[in-house]
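step: validate -> pass
step: tokenize input -> pass
step: predict -> running
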Amino acid sequence: MHSDPTPVARKVLIAGGCGVGTTTAIGSVSEIDPLHTEATIGFDFGRVTISADFVLYLFGTPGQTRFSFVWDEMARGAMAVLVIVDTRNLETSFPAIDYCESRGMPFVIAVNAFDDAPRYSESEVRDATAVGPEVPVLFFDARDQATVRTVLATLAEHAIAAPRRAPRP
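step: predict -> pass
step: emit ->
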């Protein structure tokens, strides 16, 4: 009797400043009804199957920096972080980038294509966020399931290829 193997499940964080599109991205790609909480602290949860043998559990971090104290708990066991950037308010994503760099966590930057946001090249975004060439910089639309899936697949590939680095002193 042959049974299908259980898919490998991995946890990823979806982070960025308030209003960058974390909730929208999780909602557009989650194959379960996403869990949204706003009672005392806002975070989101969803699930997406990347392939028959690979599933991602998505944990959206709170966008307000005053809630950054919960990130350590949320990051426990996470393989990587998707940092969503809004070019209209770039500095709101700096705490998430700093968090990843200070803990040596693999991450990618995904620029959300808001309709009224200025467009920048990959090198301009890389310069503005001060990340090195080892960090993928991607462009996507958090409302579009296909582009969110592509960004998440790239995040997973990056995390597998670039294991955790030593935390920054």
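step: describe -> Helices lie at 22-29, 71-75, 94-103, 122-129, 145-161.
step: cleanup -> pass
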